[in-house]
Amino acid sequence: MLWRDRILRLEELILFRLWQLSLCLLLEVGGELMSRINGFVGRRNFLKLAGVGSLGIGATAAANVILNGEQAAAQQQSNTEKKPQAPKPVDPQAALTRILEGNKRFIEGRRLNPNQSKLRLQETAEAQYPFASILGCADSRVPAEIVFDQGLGDLFVVRLAGNVASDTAIGSLEFASAVLGSQLIVVVGHAKCGAVSAAVKGDPLPGRLSSFVEEIKPAVESVRNKTGNLIENSIAANVQYQVAKLTESSTILKGLVKEGKLKVVGGRYDLATGKFTLVT
Ligand SMILES: [Zn+2]
């Protein structure tokens, strides 16, 4: 029995070893096979992620929207709905006439208060096409829309003490002219302008008050020896100086003027009568 048991155990051991060997071979061959399968599956997934195959159309459309941004979106929108066309820009001379007629209505007490309806409010919420731009003084007595009898979306208004053509003002007006299509800039000076008076006096000023005064001083110096009232002369000179500065220091505005797509004028507003008179 002892020998028989030993032989049986030996047979079991041999069988076990053979089984181990076959299992190893199977795993090796199977492993290679599995790696090939995995590689194939991986490639398919990669192709799908790359937008080729069944996912291709959707992925390409999405990429177009991302890459082309507004253009692709606008194209999609134009296919589904037609946007209302932007009105044609008002030419410089017609825009000036509109401004002067509005001021005439104001001083004669015939204001129309145009473009102030709820409909106009809704229209201008979508887009703006101001027909003219104003560079006026921040003085509370010279509100552009009232004194020129205009409404919502009509005027692109920049107001700073002394109606100075600062860098920020020029940038804003470049936007109005080059982007929004406004073809007229009106520099609006006014009687009894505190900023011009401060520039004439030339006293040291606290805080940042001197910032705009410095921008008026060259205009004051240009008329200091002129006969007549220095402050009145300076108000007119300041308007002319800021008009010149707008076109001389801005290549965008200068270019538009050259092309006939922009006119820059200036005038003086009288606080007592409300009348606006051109000085350039
Ligand atoms: Zn002023």
Contiguous low-pLDDT stretches (5 residues minimum) are 23-74
Overall body shape: elongated
Write out the strand line-up for the largest beta sheet, numbering strands in chain order. 2-1-3-4-5
Number of domain units: 2
SS elements, strand count: 5
Do you know the CATH architecture of the largest domain? 3-Layer(aba) Sandwich
Helical stretch tally: 11
Name the ligand types. zinc ion
How is the biggest beta sheet arranged? 5 strands, mixed
Structural class: alpha/beta
Radius of gyration: 39 Å
**Strand and helix order:** HHHHHEHEHEHHHHEE
Give the CA-CA distance, first to last residue: 131 Å
How confident is the prediction overall: mean pLDDT? 82
CATH structural fold name of the largest domain: Beta-carbonic Anhydrase, Chain A
Give the DSSP E fraction (strand runs of 2 or more residues).
5-15%
CATH class of the largest domain: Alpha Beta
Proportion of helical residues = 55-70%
Task: Please name the fourth-level CATH homologous superfamily of the largest domain.
Answer: Carbonic anhydrase
